[in-house]
Protein: beta-N-acetylhexosaminidase
Amino acid sequence: MDKVNVVPSPRTIEYRGGSGPFGGEVRARVDPGLGNEAYRLTVGADGAEIVGGDEAGIFWGRQTLRQLLGPDAFRRAAIGGPPVVPYVTIEDAPRFGWRGFMLDVARHFMPKDGVLRYVDLLAAHKLNVLHLHLTDDQGWRVEIERYPRLTEVGSWRRRSQRGWGWPAQWDYRPHGGFYTKDDLREIVAYAAQRHITVVPEIDIPGHSQAAIAAYPELGNGDVIDVAALEVKTDWGVNPNVLNAEEPTLRFYEGVLEEVLEVFPSTFVHIGGDECLKDQWRRSPAAQARIDELGVEDEDGLQSWIIRHFTGWLAGRGRRLVGWDEILEGGLAEGATVASWKNYEAGIIAAEEGHDVVMCPRSAVYLDYRESEDPGEPVPSGKVTTLEDVYRFEVVPPRLAGTPHAERVLGAQANMWTEVAETPQRVDYQTFPRLVAFAEVVWSHEHDFESFQRRLHAAHYARLDAMGVDYRRPDGPRPWQSRPGIPGYSR
Structure:
Protein backbone atom coordinates (compact mmCIF):
# COMPACT_ATOMS: atom_id res chain seq x y z
CA MET A 1 0.00 0.00 0.00
CA ASP A 2 2.78 2.46 0.87
CA LYS A 3 4.32 2.48 -2.60
CA VAL A 4 1.19 4.11 -4.05
CA ASN A 5 1.55 7.04 -1.63
CA VAL A 6 -2.16 7.63 -1.30
CA VAL A 7 -3.21 9.91 1.55
CA PRO A 8 -5.63 9.04 3.08
CA SER A 9 -4.88 5.34 2.82
CA PRO A 10 -7.47 3.46 0.74
CA ARG A 11 -9.73 0.74 2.07
CA THR A 12 -8.68 -1.81 -0.57
CA ILE A 13 -6.13 -1.67 -3.34
CA GLU A 14 -5.30 -4.23 -6.02
CA TYR A 15 -2.09 -4.01 -8.02
CA ARG A 16 -2.87 -5.30 -11.50
CA GLY A 17 0.73 -5.29 -12.68
CA GLY A 18 2.83 -2.72 -14.45
CA SER A 19 2.81 1.03 -14.79
CA GLY A 20 3.15 3.54 -17.56
CA PRO A 21 2.59 7.11 -18.72
CA PHE A 22 -0.89 8.33 -17.95
CA GLY A 23 -2.88 8.81 -21.12
CA GLY A 24 -5.12 11.48 -19.67
CA GLU A 25 -8.53 10.00 -20.45
CA VAL A 26 -10.79 9.80 -17.39
CA ARG A 27 -14.16 8.08 -17.63
CA ALA A 28 -16.67 8.57 -14.82
CA ARG A 29 -20.09 7.20 -13.96
CA VAL A 30 -22.37 6.81 -10.95
CA ASP A 31 -23.31 3.47 -9.39
CA PRO A 32 -25.51 4.15 -6.32
CA GLY A 33 -24.80 0.63 -5.10
CA LEU A 34 -21.38 1.76 -3.91
CA GLY A 35 -22.85 4.07 -1.27
CA ASN A 36 -22.56 7.76 -0.50
CA GLU A 37 -19.14 9.26 -1.24
CA ALA A 38 -17.65 5.87 -2.09
CA TYR A 39 -15.71 5.25 -5.30
CA ARG A 40 -13.84 2.67 -7.32
CA LEU A 41 -10.84 3.93 -9.30
CA THR A 42 -9.25 1.79 -11.99
CA VAL A 43 -6.07 3.00 -13.68
CA GLY A 44 -4.62 1.27 -16.72
CA ALA A 45 -2.82 1.84 -19.97
CA ASP A 46 -5.97 3.34 -21.50
CA GLY A 47 -6.46 5.95 -18.76
CA ALA A 48 -8.69 5.85 -15.69
CA GLU A 49 -12.26 4.93 -14.84
CA ILE A 50 -13.95 6.32 -11.73
CA VAL A 51 -17.21 4.81 -10.55
CA GLY A 52 -18.79 6.76 -7.71
CA GLY A 53 -21.67 5.96 -5.43
CA ASP A 54 -22.69 9.55 -6.16
CA GLU A 55 -21.13 12.67 -7.66
CA ALA A 56 -19.18 13.24 -4.45
CA GLY A 57 -17.69 9.75 -4.75
CA ILE A 58 -16.54 10.55 -8.29
CA PHE A 59 -14.94 13.75 -6.99
CA TRP A 60 -13.07 11.94 -4.21
CA GLY A 61 -11.92 9.38 -6.75
CA ARG A 62 -10.46 12.23 -8.78
CA GLN A 63 -8.52 13.38 -5.72
CA THR A 64 -6.97 9.93 -5.37
CA LEU A 65 -6.11 9.96 -9.06
CA ARG A 66 -4.34 13.29 -8.53
CA GLN A 67 -2.27 11.65 -5.82
CA LEU A 68 -1.30 8.82 -8.17
CA LEU A 69 -0.29 11.36 -10.83
CA GLY A 70 2.38 12.78 -8.53
CA PRO A 71 2.95 16.08 -6.69
CA ASP A 72 2.97 18.18 -9.86
CA ALA A 73 -0.70 17.32 -10.36
CA PHE A 74 -1.39 19.66 -7.42
CA ARG A 75 0.09 22.68 -9.18
CA ARG A 76 -2.20 25.21 -10.84
CA ALA A 77 -0.62 24.66 -14.22
CA ALA A 78 0.87 21.54 -15.77
CA ILE A 79 4.64 21.20 -15.84
CA GLY A 80 6.79 18.38 -17.19
CA GLY A 81 5.74 15.41 -19.25
CA PRO A 82 3.07 12.76 -18.71
CA PRO A 83 3.40 11.18 -15.26
CA VAL A 84 4.01 7.47 -14.85
CA VAL A 85 1.24 5.82 -12.84
CA PRO A 86 0.81 2.34 -11.40
CA TYR A 87 -1.98 0.21 -12.86
CA VAL A 88 -4.24 -0.32 -9.87
CA THR A 89 -7.83 -0.69 -8.76
CA ILE A 90 -8.76 1.16 -5.57
CA GLU A 91 -12.07 0.81 -3.76
CA ASP A 92 -12.64 3.33 -1.04
CA ALA A 93 -15.31 4.92 1.14
CA PRO A 94 -15.23 7.38 4.04
CA ARG A 95 -15.45 6.32 7.64
CA PHE A 96 -17.55 9.34 8.68
CA GLY A 97 -19.97 11.68 6.97
CA TRP A 98 -18.79 14.81 8.86
CA ARG A 99 -15.11 15.40 8.09
CA GLY A 100 -14.67 19.00 9.05
CA PHE A 101 -12.32 21.90 9.56
CA MET A 102 -13.26 24.96 11.62
CA LEU A 103 -11.58 28.21 10.54
CA ASP A 104 -11.81 31.19 12.89
CA VAL A 105 -12.02 34.28 10.68
CA ALA A 106 -13.39 36.45 13.51
CA ARG A 107 -10.23 36.93 15.58
CA HIS A 108 -8.08 37.51 12.49
CA PHE A 109 -9.89 38.09 9.25
CA MET A 110 -8.87 35.97 6.27
CA PRO A 111 -9.72 37.63 2.94
CA LYS A 112 -12.00 35.78 0.55
CA ASP A 113 -9.23 34.44 -1.68
CA GLY A 114 -7.59 32.84 1.36
CA VAL A 115 -10.81 31.07 2.27
CA LEU A 116 -11.22 29.82 -1.31
CA ARG A 117 -7.67 28.50 -1.13
CA TYR A 118 -8.56 26.59 2.04
CA VAL A 119 -11.57 25.10 0.27
CA ASP A 120 -9.14 23.67 -2.29
CA LEU A 121 -6.91 22.34 0.48
CA LEU A 122 -9.84 20.63 2.18
CA ALA A 123 -10.96 19.10 -1.12
CA ALA A 124 -7.49 17.69 -1.78
CA HIS A 125 -7.72 15.90 1.58
CA LYS A 126 -11.29 14.62 1.13
CA LEU A 127 -12.66 16.82 3.92
CA ASN A 128 -16.26 17.83 3.32
CA VAL A 129 -17.24 20.45 5.94
CA LEU A 130 -15.85 23.98 6.30
CA HIS A 131 -17.12 25.52 9.53
CA LEU A 132 -16.63 29.31 9.38
CA HIS A 133 -16.47 31.03 12.78
CA LEU A 134 -17.87 34.35 11.56
CA THR A 135 -18.57 36.35 14.73
CA ASP A 136 -16.91 36.85 18.09
CA ASP A 137 -15.97 39.52 20.62
CA GLN A 138 -13.12 40.67 18.40
CA GLY A 139 -14.97 41.02 15.12
CA TRP A 140 -18.16 40.53 13.09
CA ARG A 141 -17.35 39.22 9.60
CA VAL A 142 -20.68 38.73 7.78
CA GLU A 143 -22.71 41.47 6.08
CA ILE A 144 -26.25 41.80 7.47
CA GLU A 145 -28.12 44.35 5.39
CA ARG A 146 -30.80 45.21 7.95
CA TYR A 147 -28.15 45.84 10.62
CA PRO A 148 -25.35 47.72 8.84
CA ARG A 149 -23.53 48.75 12.02
CA LEU A 150 -22.56 45.10 12.59
CA THR A 151 -19.93 45.58 9.89
CA GLU A 152 -19.56 49.37 9.99
CA VAL A 153 -18.59 49.19 13.69
CA GLY A 154 -18.32 45.53 14.58
CA SER A 155 -15.88 44.40 11.88
CA TRP A 156 -13.00 46.66 13.03
CA ARG A 157 -10.98 46.86 16.21
CA ARG A 158 -8.54 49.66 16.95
CA ARG A 159 -5.69 47.42 18.12
CA SER A 160 -4.88 43.75 18.75
CA GLN A 161 -3.15 41.97 21.59
CA ARG A 162 0.17 40.43 20.57
CA GLY A 163 0.20 36.89 21.86
CA TRP A 164 -1.03 36.20 25.36
CA GLY A 165 -0.10 37.23 28.87
CA TRP A 166 -0.14 40.23 31.16
CA PRO A 167 0.82 43.01 30.91
CA ALA A 168 -0.50 42.83 27.36
CA GLN A 169 1.61 43.74 24.37
CA TRP A 170 -0.19 45.57 21.57
CA ASP A 171 -0.16 45.86 17.82
CA TYR A 172 -1.67 49.30 17.30
CA ARG A 173 -2.64 48.76 13.68
CA PRO A 174 -6.44 48.65 13.30
CA HIS A 175 -7.55 45.21 12.18
CA GLY A 176 -10.71 44.15 10.43
CA GLY A 177 -12.67 43.18 7.37
CA PHE A 178 -15.85 41.35 6.49
CA TYR A 179 -17.42 39.29 3.75
CA THR A 180 -20.25 40.68 1.70
CA LYS A 181 -23.18 38.40 1.08
CA ASP A 182 -21.95 37.88 -2.47
CA ASP A 183 -18.48 36.99 -1.17
CA LEU A 184 -20.06 34.31 0.99
CA ARG A 185 -22.32 33.09 -1.80
CA GLU A 186 -19.19 32.67 -3.92
CA ILE A 187 -17.43 30.72 -1.15
CA VAL A 188 -20.49 28.50 -0.69
CA ALA A 189 -20.81 27.85 -4.43
CA TYR A 190 -17.08 27.21 -4.85
CA ALA A 191 -17.17 24.75 -1.96
CA ALA A 192 -20.29 23.02 -3.29
CA GLN A 193 -18.53 22.37 -6.59
CA ARG A 194 -15.99 20.45 -4.50
CA HIS A 195 -18.67 18.64 -2.44
CA ILE A 196 -17.87 20.68 0.67
CA THR A 197 -20.62 22.11 2.88
CA VAL A 198 -19.99 25.49 4.50
CA VAL A 199 -21.47 25.71 8.00
CA PRO A 200 -21.79 29.29 9.34
CA GLU A 201 -21.37 30.15 13.01
CA ILE A 202 -23.11 33.15 14.62
CA ASP A 203 -22.30 33.28 18.35
CA ILE A 204 -25.22 33.45 20.80
CA PRO A 205 -25.35 34.51 23.67
CA GLY A 206 -21.66 34.81 24.61
CA HIS A 207 -18.72 35.95 22.48
CA SER A 208 -20.91 38.83 21.32
CA GLN A 209 -19.08 42.04 22.28
CA ALA A 210 -18.56 43.12 18.66
CA ALA A 211 -22.34 42.99 18.15
CA ILE A 212 -22.99 44.86 21.41
CA ALA A 213 -20.44 47.52 20.44
CA ALA A 214 -22.42 48.05 17.24
CA TYR A 215 -25.87 47.87 18.89
CA PRO A 216 -25.55 48.59 22.64
CA GLU A 217 -29.20 47.70 23.28
CA LEU A 218 -28.18 44.04 22.88
CA GLY A 219 -26.14 44.14 26.09
CA ASN A 220 -27.04 44.13 29.75
CA GLY A 221 -27.45 47.87 30.10
CA ASP A 222 -28.91 47.71 33.59
CA VAL A 223 -25.59 46.50 35.07
CA ILE A 224 -22.87 47.84 32.71
CA ASP A 225 -22.29 50.91 30.57
CA VAL A 226 -22.98 49.27 27.24
CA ALA A 227 -22.33 52.51 25.34
CA ALA A 228 -18.71 52.38 26.47
CA LEU A 229 -18.04 48.95 24.96
CA GLU A 230 -15.85 48.70 21.87
CA VAL A 231 -14.93 45.73 19.73
CA LYS A 232 -12.74 43.67 22.05
CA THR A 233 -9.00 44.09 21.47
CA ASP A 234 -7.60 41.31 23.66
CA TRP A 235 -8.28 37.59 23.97
CA GLY A 236 -9.83 35.36 26.59
CA VAL A 237 -13.27 34.63 28.03
CA ASN A 238 -15.41 37.75 28.18
CA PRO A 239 -18.13 38.72 30.71
CA ASN A 240 -20.03 40.92 28.23
CA VAL A 241 -22.88 38.79 26.88
CA LEU A 242 -26.24 39.37 25.23
CA ASN A 243 -29.32 40.13 27.26
CA ALA A 244 -32.26 37.73 27.06
CA GLU A 245 -34.96 40.21 26.10
CA GLU A 246 -37.45 39.67 23.28
CA PRO A 247 -36.01 42.48 21.09
CA THR A 248 -32.60 40.76 21.21
CA LEU A 249 -34.16 37.48 20.11
CA ARG A 250 -35.89 39.30 17.23
CA PHE A 251 -32.58 40.95 16.31
CA TYR A 252 -30.81 37.60 16.00
CA GLU A 253 -33.73 36.07 14.16
CA GLY A 254 -33.23 38.88 11.64
CA VAL A 255 -29.52 38.08 11.47
CA LEU A 256 -30.19 34.40 10.94
CA GLU A 257 -32.83 35.04 8.28
CA GLU A 258 -30.14 36.70 6.17
CA VAL A 259 -27.59 34.00 7.02
CA LEU A 260 -30.00 31.31 5.83
CA GLU A 261 -30.40 33.16 2.53
CA VAL A 262 -26.68 32.73 1.89
CA PHE A 263 -25.88 29.35 3.45
CA PRO A 264 -27.99 26.36 2.32
CA SER A 265 -26.36 23.99 4.82
CA THR A 266 -28.65 21.88 6.98
CA PHE A 267 -26.61 22.79 10.06
CA VAL A 268 -26.24 26.29 11.48
CA HIS A 269 -23.82 26.78 14.38
CA ILE A 270 -24.82 29.21 17.12
CA GLY A 271 -21.74 28.95 19.38
CA GLY A 272 -23.17 28.83 22.88
CA ASP A 273 -19.81 28.38 24.60
CA GLU A 274 -18.14 30.32 27.40
CA CYS A 275 -21.21 32.39 28.23
CA LEU A 276 -20.29 33.87 31.60
CA LYS A 277 -23.46 34.58 33.55
CA ASP A 278 -22.27 37.12 36.13
CA GLN A 279 -24.09 39.97 34.40
CA TRP A 280 -27.32 37.95 34.30
CA ARG A 281 -26.95 37.20 38.01
CA ARG A 282 -26.66 40.93 38.77
CA SER A 283 -29.22 42.10 36.21
CA PRO A 284 -32.75 42.79 37.51
CA ALA A 285 -33.98 42.42 33.92
CA ALA A 286 -32.36 39.00 33.51
CA GLN A 287 -33.71 37.84 36.89
CA ALA A 288 -37.19 39.01 35.92
CA ARG A 289 -36.82 37.12 32.66
CA ILE A 290 -35.90 33.94 34.56
CA ASP A 291 -39.06 34.33 36.66
CA GLU A 292 -41.19 35.12 33.60
CA LEU A 293 -40.01 32.05 31.70
CA GLY A 294 -40.20 29.77 34.73
CA VAL A 295 -36.67 28.46 34.31
CA GLU A 296 -34.57 27.49 37.30
CA ASP A 297 -31.52 29.74 37.01
CA GLU A 298 -29.07 31.40 34.64
CA ASP A 299 -28.11 28.07 33.06
CA GLY A 300 -31.80 27.53 32.46
CA LEU A 301 -32.00 30.94 30.81
CA GLN A 302 -29.25 30.07 28.36
CA SER A 303 -30.90 26.72 27.73
CA TRP A 304 -34.18 28.51 26.98
CA ILE A 305 -32.40 30.75 24.43
CA ILE A 306 -30.79 27.73 22.75
CA ARG A 307 -34.12 25.90 22.71
CA HIS A 308 -35.76 28.94 21.14
CA PHE A 309 -33.30 29.01 18.26
CA THR A 310 -33.37 25.23 17.92
CA GLY A 311 -37.09 25.46 17.26
CA TRP A 312 -36.75 28.58 15.12
CA LEU A 313 -34.21 26.87 12.85
CA ALA A 314 -36.18 23.61 12.77
CA GLY A 315 -39.20 25.54 11.54
CA ARG A 316 -37.10 26.58 8.55
CA GLY A 317 -35.78 23.12 7.80
CA ARG A 318 -32.42 23.64 9.49
CA ARG A 319 -30.66 22.10 12.47
CA LEU A 320 -28.86 23.84 15.30
CA VAL A 321 -25.35 22.79 16.29
CA GLY A 322 -23.47 24.34 19.19
CA TRP A 323 -20.46 23.85 21.44
CA ASP A 324 -20.89 21.50 24.37
CA GLU A 325 -22.01 24.19 26.84
CA ILE A 326 -25.42 24.07 25.15
CA LEU A 327 -25.98 20.93 27.25
CA GLU A 328 -26.11 23.10 30.38
CA GLY A 329 -29.66 23.41 31.59
CA GLY A 330 -30.94 20.80 29.16
CA LEU A 331 -30.88 20.48 25.39
CA ALA A 332 -33.74 20.65 22.92
CA GLU A 333 -34.56 17.68 20.74
CA GLY A 334 -32.83 17.93 17.39
CA ALA A 335 -29.85 19.98 18.57
CA THR A 336 -26.36 18.68 17.76
CA VAL A 337 -23.35 19.05 20.08
CA ALA A 338 -19.84 19.90 18.91
CA SER A 339 -17.86 18.43 21.80
CA TRP A 340 -14.76 20.60 22.34
CA LYS A 341 -13.79 20.58 26.03
CA ASN A 342 -13.33 16.83 26.19
CA TYR A 343 -15.02 13.62 25.13
CA GLU A 344 -17.45 13.56 28.05
CA ALA A 345 -19.94 16.10 26.70
CA GLY A 346 -20.11 14.22 23.41
CA ILE A 347 -20.64 10.93 25.22
CA ILE A 348 -23.44 12.38 27.35
CA ALA A 349 -25.10 14.00 24.33
CA ALA A 350 -24.97 10.78 22.31
CA GLU A 351 -26.36 8.74 25.18
CA GLU A 352 -29.20 11.25 25.52
CA GLY A 353 -30.07 10.81 21.85
CA HIS A 354 -28.34 13.83 20.31
CA ASP A 355 -26.05 13.83 17.31
CA VAL A 356 -22.43 14.72 18.03
CA VAL A 357 -19.43 16.11 16.20
CA MET A 358 -16.23 15.25 18.08
CA CYS A 359 -13.59 17.99 18.26
CA PRO A 360 -11.90 17.67 21.68
CA ARG A 361 -9.21 20.27 22.32
CA SER A 362 -6.93 17.58 23.70
CA ALA A 363 -6.56 16.06 20.23
CA VAL A 364 -7.65 18.32 17.37
CA TYR A 365 -7.10 21.96 18.36
CA LEU A 366 -4.59 22.97 15.70
CA ASP A 367 -3.84 26.34 17.30
CA TYR A 368 -2.08 24.38 20.06
CA ARG A 369 1.70 24.13 19.76
CA GLU A 370 3.24 21.05 18.19
CA SER A 371 6.37 20.82 20.33
CA GLU A 372 8.31 22.33 23.22
CA ASP A 373 10.73 23.87 20.70
CA PRO A 374 11.36 27.48 21.89
CA GLY A 375 11.09 28.55 18.26
CA GLU A 376 7.40 27.60 18.05
CA PRO A 377 5.59 30.84 17.16
CA VAL A 378 3.56 32.16 20.14
CA PRO A 379 3.25 28.72 21.73
CA SER A 380 -0.20 28.09 23.15
CA GLY A 381 -2.23 25.31 24.72
CA LYS A 382 -0.78 21.88 25.26
CA VAL A 383 1.68 20.10 23.01
CA THR A 384 -0.32 18.32 20.31
CA THR A 385 1.98 16.45 17.97
CA LEU A 386 1.33 15.05 14.53
CA GLU A 387 1.14 11.60 16.13
CA ASP A 388 -1.33 12.86 18.77
CA VAL A 389 -3.69 13.98 16.01
CA TYR A 390 -3.20 10.76 14.07
CA ARG A 391 -4.06 8.66 17.13
CA PHE A 392 -7.28 10.60 17.79
CA GLU A 393 -10.15 8.14 18.09
CA VAL A 394 -13.38 9.74 16.97
CA VAL A 395 -15.74 7.29 18.73
CA PRO A 396 -14.90 7.08 22.47
CA PRO A 397 -14.57 3.56 23.91
CA ARG A 398 -17.70 4.05 26.03
CA LEU A 399 -19.78 4.50 22.88
CA ALA A 400 -17.98 2.03 20.64
CA GLY A 401 -20.06 -1.05 19.91
CA THR A 402 -23.25 0.51 21.28
CA PRO A 403 -26.22 1.95 19.37
CA HIS A 404 -25.13 5.38 20.64
CA ALA A 405 -22.03 5.23 18.41
CA GLU A 406 -24.28 5.97 15.43
CA ARG A 407 -24.92 9.40 16.95
CA VAL A 408 -21.31 10.39 16.21
CA LEU A 409 -21.61 12.11 12.85
CA GLY A 410 -17.86 12.50 12.61
CA ALA A 411 -15.28 15.01 13.73
CA GLN A 412 -13.60 18.28 12.90
CA ALA A 413 -10.28 19.93 13.59
CA ASN A 414 -10.47 23.49 14.93
CA MET A 415 -8.12 26.34 14.02
CA TRP A 416 -8.56 29.37 16.29
CA THR A 417 -6.69 32.48 15.20
CA GLU A 418 -6.11 34.74 18.20
CA VAL A 419 -2.37 34.52 17.53
CA ALA A 420 -2.46 33.34 13.93
CA GLU A 421 -2.56 36.72 12.26
CA THR A 422 -1.65 35.73 8.69
CA PRO A 423 -2.57 32.96 6.24
CA GLN A 424 1.04 31.74 6.45
CA ARG A 425 0.69 31.28 10.21
CA VAL A 426 -2.60 29.45 9.73
CA ASP A 427 -0.79 27.15 7.29
CA TYR A 428 1.95 26.51 9.83
CA GLN A 429 -0.48 25.55 12.58
CA THR A 430 -2.76 23.53 10.33
CA PHE A 431 -0.41 21.42 8.24
CA PRO A 432 0.62 18.65 8.26
CA ARG A 433 -1.59 17.89 11.27
CA LEU A 434 -4.72 18.36 9.17
CA VAL A 435 -3.39 15.63 6.85
CA ALA A 436 -3.27 13.28 9.83
CA PHE A 437 -6.78 14.29 10.82
CA ALA A 438 -8.03 13.71 7.26
CA GLU A 439 -6.79 10.14 7.33
CA VAL A 440 -8.35 9.50 10.75
CA VAL A 441 -11.84 10.57 9.66
CA TRP A 442 -11.65 8.87 6.25
CA SER A 443 -9.72 5.64 6.71
CA HIS A 444 -10.36 2.56 8.82
CA GLU A 445 -6.66 1.64 8.89
CA HIS A 446 -4.47 3.68 11.22
CA ASP A 447 -0.77 2.88 10.98
CA PHE A 448 1.28 5.91 12.02
CA GLU A 449 4.57 4.55 10.71
CA SER A 450 2.99 3.95 7.29
CA PHE A 451 1.46 7.43 7.42
CA GLN A 452 4.85 9.01 8.16
CA ARG A 453 6.49 7.16 5.30
CA ARG A 454 3.80 8.35 2.90
CA LEU A 455 4.14 11.93 4.12
CA HIS A 456 7.87 11.92 3.43
CA ALA A 457 7.63 9.98 0.18
CA ALA A 458 5.04 12.16 -1.49
CA HIS A 459 2.72 14.27 0.58
CA TYR A 460 5.15 16.96 1.73
CA ALA A 461 5.92 17.46 -1.96
CA ARG A 462 2.19 17.84 -2.63
CA LEU A 463 1.94 20.51 0.07
CA ASP A 464 4.94 22.25 -1.50
CA ALA A 465 3.22 22.13 -4.89
CA MET A 466 0.09 23.70 -3.36
CA GLY A 467 2.16 26.47 -1.76
CA VAL A 468 1.42 25.51 1.84
CA ASP A 469 3.79 27.04 4.41
CA TYR A 470 3.55 23.96 6.62
CA ARG A 471 5.57 23.05 9.71
CA ARG A 472 8.54 20.94 8.68
CA PRO A 473 9.23 17.69 10.52
CA ASP A 474 12.35 19.14 12.16
CA GLY A 475 10.57 22.21 13.48
CA PRO A 476 9.90 25.84 12.58
CA ARG A 477 11.96 27.72 10.04
CA PRO A 478 13.38 31.08 11.15
CA TRP A 479 10.66 33.06 9.35
CA GLN A 480 7.97 31.01 11.05
CA SER A 481 9.02 32.03 14.57
CA ARG A 482 7.83 35.14 16.39
CA PRO A 483 10.46 35.84 19.06
CA GLY A 484 9.44 38.05 21.93
CA ILE A 485 5.69 37.46 21.62
CA PRO A 486 4.40 35.78 24.79
CA GLY A 487 2.40 32.58 24.59
CA TYR A 488 0.76 30.41 27.19
CA SER A 489 1.15 26.74 27.96
CA ARG A 490 -1.11 24.14 29.55
